[in-house]
């Protein structure tokens, strides 16, 4: 998790999580936003310490950069998705936190 976007109602609880993984060069690359699979309690508990700048390499799409709240990538999430495309994950859904994995060990999945 590298950040979050506010929900439609605004406020402190996020509407979606911004997720990333490391590429072959070790750069953290934004994969997209996960909007489903969270209970209200999980949404409140997953908010992390903020950082002023995006922790990812490359350009962040303007549609995300405008409202994103960035965090230091310390948590690893389990994300189910239909496929990975050149632009990110298709139909991602949150499954929970992974305490058995370190953020630096997470790499980009192969594209379908």
Task: Describe the protein in words.
- The protein has 112 residues and is mainly β.
- The chain has a single domain (3-105), classed as Beta Barrel (OB fold (Dihydrolipoamide Acetyltransferase, E2P)), CATH 2.40.50.140.
- It contains 2 helices and 8 strands.
- It has helices spanning 40-45, 62-65, and strands at 3-6, 14-22, 28-34, 69-70, 77-80, 83-85, 88-90, 93-97.
- Strands 3-2-1-4 form a 4-stranded antiparallel beta sheet, with no helix packed on it. Strands 5-8 form a two-stranded antiparallel ribbon. Strands 6-7 form a two-stranded antiparallel ribbon.
- The protein is globular.
- The two termini are 22 Å apart.
- The relative contact order is 0.26.
Short overview:
The chain is mainly β. 9% of the residues lie in helices and 33% in strands. The protein is built from 2 helices and 8 strands; from the N terminus they run E-E-E-H-H-E-E-E-E-E.
Determine the N-to-C terminus distance. 22 Å
The largest β sheet comes out as: 4 strands, antiparallel
Specify Rg, calculated over alpha carbons.
Answer: 13 Å
Do you know the CATH topology? OB fold (Dihydrolipoamide Acetyltransferase, E2P)
Share in β-strands: 25-35%
**Average pLDDT for all residues:** 87
- Count of strand segments: 8
The helix/strand series, from N terminus to C terminus, equals EEEHHEEEEE
Q: Using the alpha-carbon principal axes, give the shape.
A: globular
Stretches where pLDDT is under 50 for at least 5 consecutive residues are none
The first-level CATH class is given as Mainly Beta
Number of domains: 1
Helix content: under 10%
CATH homologous superfamily designation: Nucleic acid-binding proteins
Strands in their spatial order, largest beta sheet? 3-2-1-4
What's the total helix number? 2
């Amino acid at each position: 998790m590298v950040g979050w976007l506010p929900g439609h109602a605004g406020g402190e609880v996020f509407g979606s999580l911004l997720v990333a993984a490391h590429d072959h060069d070790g750069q953290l690359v934004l994969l997209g936003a996960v909007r489903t699979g969270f209970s209200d309690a999980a949404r409140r508990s997953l908010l992390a310490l903020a950082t002023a700048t995006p922790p990812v390499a490359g350009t962040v799409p303007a549609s995300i950069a405008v409202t994103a709240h960035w965090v230091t990538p310390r948590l690893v999430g389990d994300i189910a998705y239909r496929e990975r495309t050149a632009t990110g994950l298709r139909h991602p859904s949150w499954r929970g936190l992974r305490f058995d994995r370190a953020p630096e060990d997470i790499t980009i999945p192969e594209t379908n």
